[in-house]
Amino acid sequence: MKEAKSPSAAPCPEGGTRVRDRIFRTARELFYRQGIRAVGVDAIACGAGTNKMSFYRSFGSKDELVAECLRAQVSEFWEHWDASIAPHAGDPRRQIETVFESSMSKSCGADACGCPLSNAAVELREAEHPGHQVIREYKAEVRRRLRALARDAGASDAEALGDALMLLLEGSAMTRLTFAGNGGPIVNSLGAVHTLLDAYLPARKAAAAAKAAKPAKSARLAKATS
Amino acid sequence: MKEAKSPSAAPCPEGGTRVRDRIFRTARELFYRQGIRAVGVDAIACGAGTNKMSFYRSFGSKDELVAECLRAQVSEFWEHWDASIAPHAGDPRRQIETVFESSMSKSCGADACGCPLSNAAVELREAEHPGHQVIREYKAEVRRRLRALARDAGASDAEALGDALMLLLEGSAMTRLTFAGNGGPIVNSLGAVHTLLDAYLPARKAAAAAKAAKPAKSARLAKATS
DNA sequence: CGCATACGTTACCGACCGGTAACAGCCGCG
DNA sequence: CGCGGCTGTTACCGGTCGGTAACGTATGCG
């Protein structure tokens, strides 16, 4: 609830030897790895090297902690999003590819467990949960940004392309939970993105002037897995 | 565990006034609507009009019930899958479209909550859960069948097309949970399927377009490739 | 020094969890 | 009739859940 402000105005550095920060990091990790409902506050406090009482001195309730973890995840994602598209300003197609690779590397990496926001959407079905709105707003913004990128890239149907990209993104994160390692359908998700881009975007790219479907996979995949 | 066979050889009709069947139906509904971990055996028994003791007379444990619900869901899905592609034998492209529409209508309909198997994959993270293997096998089979259909349709890269279709399918089910009603990205998922099919399949769409009055969206590729 | 912040510790609460024991009634069927 | 399945009912178990009270202590700072 209340923000614990140090009286000496210590600006709360990122390292965070403070109990609250340790609890926060531990909670995010446990929620992500084992699921939100599967982790109790006792396990969080114990994992953070403290006890339940210190937990409730820093957070009003478990639901509030969950919502705050989700908000932190959203901020982190947007940071990575902005950082990934910044070097390719003026090249929307490259931005789409980059943002897709960036998102995939976060949610579909070797030790990843999918998208923490999507997973939370499955676990938190009650509409009144404080984390529910965080998830909805985040997903709506993802959709909005993908559509905007598709429009900037000159897509023949920006809404359709943006939505298709979002479906691929969500599907990649989801299949990551079921298929072990990197052997699942995500090995072909970047190829699908390129195919969609080739289909919806004007063929202004001289390098990709070849046929849309066939040769795209092997070349792009080699680049992606490197 | 053991199949309760009526001594009078009543063949256990589908209606199921039996307690076990009522519990089973109630459990599937509650698990799907509210999530597996969010529903206790008390709520299931009470929702089925009975009590917890009768629950444990029919099912060994909650985890076993969960696994059995997932198995029933898998069987039901394959039934619909087979029934949906049967009328279009010999037209693999139409089969892909139909199976996609069928799956979407089950998991992304007005009152749907996504794919129950995918949702269970998020909720049941422990690998030793009896339902875990059911989910993995089902998803692996979905992938295998989609790739087979892509190969039958003569895709230039059957694995890539099949995987891309699967990602769209999973993404559609997942976004259904976050975006209310039919306003989410799933409105464009069928369009994405058609775009992918047009990109990966040989251009034999003249005959299909003439016969199928269904999609008005497959004309988009003409604009994209021109 | 005294005071406040931050944290650890122990014990506790009511509620619910999954799961069980014991008993009583109903009903079909020999 | 009596027997055996199926069901309803009540009570109970140990454990865990989210959450709280009370007390002790270390540190920092005026």
Automatic annotation (TrEMBL), chains A, B:
Q: Which residues bind DNA?
A: 40-59
- What's in the keyword line of the UniProt record? DNA-binding, Transcription, Transcription regulation
Q: Which Pfam families match?
A: TetR_N
MF terms per GO, please? DNA binding
Question: Which residues are in the HTH tetR-type domain?
Answer: 17-77
Keyword Transcription in annotation? yes
| UniProt xrefs under PANTHER family | HTH-TYPE TRANSCRIPTIONAL REGULATOR YJDC, TRANSCRIPTIONAL REGULATORY PROTEIN
Protein's recorded name: TetR/AcrR family transcriptional regulator
Organism per entry: Solimonas terrae
List the taxonomic lineage: Bacteria, Pseudomonadati, Pseudomonadota, Gammaproteobacteria, Nevskiales
